[in-house]
Amino acid sequence: MWLNPKFVWLGPILLSMANVGCAAKEPIVSNGASFRLQAFHNDSLLFTPAIPEDHPTTAIIRLTLSSRVQSSGNSGCSETRGPFRIEPGKSDPPSIDIYLPAPERWLGDLEGTNEPDGGAEIEALDGFLADVDRLQQGGCFPDASVSIRDFILQNIPMRPQESYFNAYGYRLGKGGLDLKPGIRLKIERAYFRPPTVPGEDKYGAKNFLGLSTVYFDVDVNRDNKTEFRQLGDIRYSPTTDRQSGAEGLRDIALSHLPPERRYRIFFYTYLVAEQQKRSAAIIGSDDVGKLDELDRELRANPAKDCKDAKASAGVSCFSFDGFVTVSSQVNVELNGTPTFVEWGVRVKDVLPKTWNERGLKWLRVQRRFGADRYLDVKVDRGQANVLALVLVGGDRVTWSKALVSSQ
Questions:
Q1: Is pLDDT at 335 greater than 50 in this prediction?
Q2: Which of 48, 280, 355, 383 is the most buried (most CB within 10 A)?
Q3: Rounded to two decimals, what is the model's pTM?
């Protein structure tokens, strides 16, 4: 079969431990299971091993998760929203059956080609996830060892450029991003001297003094609750000292937020005009449904501070006001070296800058599946869709440069 030379290096994607250039630090299954990027209709979807390779693209997806249901005859342990459904399994041993839309239908929803009803189905997913979390918190599935909400998120087919939804429940245009271990927050605050000329822009480049920068890692404590750990002291740029940059001291209060079952970062800057001086907020609660409710309220009223929202009762809230940016980074492994990369970085962004010219001998991408397993991301021969895959926390990318002849 002829291969486009531009993509010929994608052919020998390595699928066995023997071909990895460095030793793995976590267990890797060796039964051939893998993620896979499947191309169709001029687009691609990322599937997990939970969805069989021969699953028809026009057929509804059914996932089965082993768990005893508190009362198999209790209709209160079933929920349906649009094409999404969860219910007690009808087979033995006890299990939960979860139904997702057919891949072809779902891809149309993501692309917006199934309007007018496609958008409603995506909104139905948000409500369905809230329902699932409520059922699990209410004791419907006492034996489930994982968050069923997270299990569903990881297994929903998504386009490679949107794979952060599988890990963090985030979509562009949806304000909230679930904060999990492996995420690092970077807070940068700008400072300005008072204007010396009447009518002068007080926030113009002429009056810019410098920046303060502080980092926080997202951690989980012994009670499996999320908290924030500050990394070092606030760092000031050369033209800014602690006195002129004292405003940034309030940012370190983030580490004093109480541990919560889940925290989420809400980005105001995606929703409001540049004049809005509130960039982001951190919201947290033991009840994920409350976070969903507050998330919806802030999206509908982006000028509102999270502390002033009606849905803020019982929710921890920390707003970032002023000339400040809050960005997230994810911990990945590049050729065996752990490193933090900026949010939204794709596979193509971490490859050597000369890869287009010289090519790669081989490329391997691995992603965590479940708590402690790493699986390969399988790519169809000749397909370059893996280059658009957005990296999430824990991803491993390894490669080897192709040998270049001196002649």
A1: yes
A2: 280
A3: 0.81
